[in-house]
Amino acid sequence: MGQPGQAPAYETVAAHEAEILEAWLQSLHADGALQSGRIREGELRVQCTGLLRQLRAGMAESSDVDAPAFAPLRDALSDLSARRAQQGFSPREIATFIFSLKQPLFEAINRHLGNEALALQASWQTGLMLDRLGLLTMESFQRMREEVIVRQQQEISELSTPVIKLWDGILALPLIGTLDSQRTQVVMENLLESIAQQGAGMAIIDITGVPTVDTLTAQHLLKTVAAARLMGADCIISGIRPQIAQTMVHLGVELTVVSKATLADAFALALSRQGRGVTRLRRPDAAPQPPATGLG
Predict the structure, then answer these.
(1) pTM for this one?
(2) Which of 14, 69, 189, 271 could form a Cys-Cys staple with 276, CB 3.0–4.6 A?
(3) Residue range 222-231, pLDDT digits in tens
(4) Homologous superfamily of 7-156 in CATH?
């Protein structure tokens, strides 16, 4: 049996589990647990039934939710929180799921225990136990939410750093947004992999979409340029706007690499270094000459 003072609460749950379950479900319904459409009635009932059964099993052995007897319940709540975090449930919905069990348990204890002092003690201990389980649930939920956010940031970072082939041996890497240490690593990996795969000798890093360039951003750019040079590719930085140029001068930032104002200028320079150029065959507004008739 449980520890002193825990037996009355356990006996109440064991004897009136079905009654407590229905009251718990009604409380969840009243709080709008099904309104979001993320969970169905049957699934909610199965989850509540399983968790209440595991709670009863744990209470039969201990009042400490960190005890081995509560391990199945802790694991179930952790798994439930992780899945709900991935499904987009809010922190309020997660917290309500556990804390809404308090009132059905307290009402059952007060209704079925004749001794008022005993009922008060059992309700107090049960409330502390549910508070602890609620905190464990929120910790699991928050941990999974942070993992989801980090994964999404990584995916967005990878999507926002494409390497484009402009010409044979010429690559372009347009950057959009802030360039921090983590993103620099992704940029460097993508660029070096593309250089190796395509045997490119020129890489244009376009920073038109980078809002500001400070000392730290410049260092990240230089690291990327240095890594590309080790792979045998020269780099050109394009997209330095007047505001960014002034900021870099005030900060004393020097980019020890060729830079151009626009991507078009950088592309023209890259072509010239390969012995190529772009020429216009004819003026687009020039009218075609009529063919000669051969009549004198």
Answers:
(1) 0.54
(2) 271
(3) 888 999 999 9
(4) Globins (1.10.490.10)
